[in-house]
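Fold this complex.
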Amino acid sequence: MKIEKTPAPLILPNPQDPRLTERVEGIDQAGARVEINVPVERPLTLYLNAQEIVTMMTIGDYPKYLALGYLLNQNMLKYDDVVTEVEYDDDLEVVVVRTEHHTDFEQKLKKRTQTSGCAQGTAFGDLMEAIETIALPKAELRTSWLYQMTQAINTTPSLYLEAGAIHGCVLCREGAPLCYTEDVGRHNAVDKIAGWIYCHDVDPADKILYTTGRLTSEMVIKTVRMGIPILVSRSGFTAWGVDLARQVGLTLVGRARGKRFIALSGEQRLVYDQSLDYVEEESARHRRKGEGRDD
Amino acid sequence: MKIEKTPAPLILPNPQDPRLTERVEGIDQAGARVEINVPVERPLTLYLNAQEIVTMMTIGDYPKYLALGYLLNQNMLKYDDVVTEVEYDDDLEVVVVRTEHHTDFEQKLKKRTQTSGCAQGTAFGDLMEAIETIALPKAELRTSWLYQMTQAINTTPSLYLEAGAIHGCVLCREGAPLCYTEDVGRHNAVDKIAGWIYCHDVDPADKILYTTGRLTSEMVIKTVRMGIPILVSRSGFTAWGVDLARQVGLTLVGRARGKRFIALSGEQRLVYDQSLDYVEEESARHRRKGEGRDD
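Structure:
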């Protein structure tokens, strides 16, 4: 692409950013006045060239990563399309991705709208096609990395710890978080990761993706599209998510909490190098609620 | 509408239904083989007359409620449109809603696709318009009902307790669940409720809606569109959800777990009739994980 690729900055949540949370007043079970922090949620309308694509609900940080990641993950933008500009207008709540040539997707959309009108169906069919041809790299997931990673994620200051009601997605190398994004929708958090990878030419082959959300087909498809061989969650699985992961050889680890985890696909990448006697259970303070069942 | 309205059946989860979960084998933190139940997730393509609308990912129960509820909640179908038939094809994974006349939405979609191609943006703008004119009824939320309700929901056998990784949505009258739906997406669970209300001409004015998911703008908009005055969740809030609820006078209660809850909007409907000394905290077995923070 044409937009300049810059070295990857470390991305961590910024719970002190006043644009991302709001203080609201209410009443509790004893009838007492209480004040709590809640995450904001605002619309962001995405254009691909002159084509309006979607209005997303987002906390609003990293709009450019979100825009690029969304288009890449929906297969509306190919990795070899030339992006000339990504323009974000804070006041209008609009982000525009411009490409050198009209993309293949816009053609498809025009054809498709005659029978469908909605890009979501199309995109989904395309996504399935797009992952069938992908071969994920060899890699390993040492259990020591897994425990380091989850402990680092649970104890890093975040909007989640500050205001709750938010999902997180973290790209790690070995046990270390490199890009930790949060958003009201888990799909946004993962799309921001995809945008970050793209903008900074990050090699996905030795990375591990962590999500606080469930391991659904959508999450599996996006991980595979990014070329990341390992996906970890503290939440549970859906049957189709497992099925797809097995078809493409993605390592899928769920219910990762404290010492515990379950791998349902790609178990051959697991290396058991950590004695469980030295792994701590999660403290109550950092026990993040997943979307799945606890045991 | 023309399709016959029948008396409302009590809807409860059916965790024994073999079509809704799958048994999968994997490996745990000790390297031992384990087997767990996970919810299924399958595509369901929705047509409004000849127009393909969307492909939804769903567990697949109650496709007709889901189809009608989706269209109603997206404002693609009006409550006064005449529905002549809802046809579901299990093999094709297709559901078709037929109306007497082409709906207003199809017109809009045709116009819209020239600039957008995606129904999601349009629908969202329309939704905001649609709720501005709604006046929610007077109602009360006794705290005794709230505690009865949450205890009943937490202890009712469900796919959640069976397989995890699933959201639930429950329509209650006073303290009693009337329609308890589950799905891999929380938007599907609430859309099924909307379809159930529509098919059985249920009066929303004295009802309370409970969701396991967060209280986002989307959830608030859907509740208001259904005409339900009270929305309760065990999860947290987003700022825009709170904002919208206050604008339209919806009672919004979040973080409802054990004895605790917080109301951030419509507090005047609360009636504190329950002594907290007689409310039990949640047992570990039934402590459902919400999408929000616990405290």
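The helical segments of chain B are 63-73, 104-113, 119-132, 143-155, 159-163, 186-199, 217-226, 239-248.
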